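User: Let's play a game. I give you a shape written as tokens, and you guess the letters that built it. Ready? Here's round one.
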């Protein structure tokens, strides 16, 4: 068996609240639009810290991208996704640029798991 290498590009990410403040922690959600019913690229949602992150993506595909945060809503977790969803095609001529995601609410208290 012989595997063919797939070219990839690292995309830098910034995530901000609607007022421009840095989002402390959350996850990135990138889906390949050719596979609308599949999980996010790589099968997971990478975490970002202090409003910055990156993701390594295969070239030759169109992606739908967003960021999400989980806010502590007392007895529940309120998940908020960035808007609008960003759509872009990643090919060999793509010029690496920082994608900025805006969480469309005021800053919230982020949910953290409580030790048992």
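Assistant: Ready! My guess for every position:
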């Amino acid at each position: 068996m012989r595997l063919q290498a797939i070219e990839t590009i690292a995309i830098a990410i910034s995530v901000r609240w609607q007022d421009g403040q840095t989002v402390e922690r959350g996850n990135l959600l990138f889906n390949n639009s050719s596979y609308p019913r599949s999980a996010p690229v790589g099968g997971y949602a990478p975490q970002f810290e202090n409003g910055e992150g990156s993701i390594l993506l295969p070239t030759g595909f169109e992606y739908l991208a967003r960021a999400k945060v989980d806010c502590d809503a007392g007895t529940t977790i309120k998940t908020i996704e960035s808007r609008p969803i960003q759509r872009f095609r990643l090919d060999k001529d793509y010029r690496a640029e920082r994608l900025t995601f805006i969480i469309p609410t005021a800053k919230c208290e982020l949910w953290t798991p409580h030790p048992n």
